[in-house]
Amino acid sequence: QVQLTESGGGLVQAGDSLRLSCATSGRTSAMGWFRQASGKEREFIAAIRNDGRTYYADAMEGRFAISRDNAKNTVYLHIYSLKPEDTAVYYCAGTEREFVVNSMLVRRSTYRYWGQGTQVTVSS
User: Fold this and answer.
1) What is the pLDDT of residue 99?
2) Nearest to 15 by CA among 78, 84, 67
3) Contact partners, residue 37, CB within 8 Å, separation at least 6
4) Model confidence over 44-63: pLDDT tens digits?
5) Which residues pair with residue 10 across a beta bridge?
6) Which helix (H) or strand (E) holds 103?
7) What Cα–Cα distance (Å) separates residue 53 from each residue in 20, 22, 80, 118, 123?
8) pLDDT attached to residue 49
9) Does residue 95 contact residue 57 with C-beta atoms inside 8 Å?
10) Band of residue 104 on the pLDDT scale cut at 50, 70, 90
11) Which DSSP string corresponds to 72-92?
């Protein structure tokens, strides 16, 4: 059983940048970041495989950057030029599946492990 713990959320101003962290207790083959705004479905942002290859949702590429530090068992999500519409709970997720293609990385069902979420609120 892998445990995921997010941190780094909070109240920020529009235009700020933020780094979210996700500490993992075990090995996964790929990690993803999702977010869920109030009243909306959880949406995929980005994923990173163990070999460092990344994949982004089309709408997220540009202001979001996913990275990992394997020595620290931590995955990061950098968010730049924050907008009020980025306000959401941000979740990290992990999968142990091997040979996960990009079309699978965007699906919530691909991920077995989920963190508790961290709230990001962007004020205008």
Assistant:
1) 87
2) 84
3) 85, 87, 88, 89
4) 999 999 999 999 999 887 89
5) 120
6) helix 102-105
7) 19, 17, 20, 24, 33
8) 95
9) no
10) very high
11) GTEEEEEE-S--GGG-EEEEE
Residue in the structure block whose two tokens are 């109240």:
11
Q: Which two three-digit tokens encode residue 19?
A: 């780094």
Read off the amino acid at residue 20: L
Q: How confident is the model at residue 123 (pLDDT cuts 50, 70, 90)?
A: very high
Which H or E run contains 4? strand 4-7
H or E element that contains 34: strand 30-36
Q: Which amino acid is at 39?
A: G
| Amino acid, res. 27 | R
Handedness of CA 63, 19, 83, 111 (dihedral sign): positive
Report the C-alpha gap between 62 and 32 in whole angstroms: 17
Rounded-to-integer distance, Cα 123 and Cα 12, Å: 6
Q: Which residues of 35-65 are buried (b: 16+ CB within 10 A; e: fewer)?
A: beeeeeeeebbbbbbeeeeebbbeebeeebb
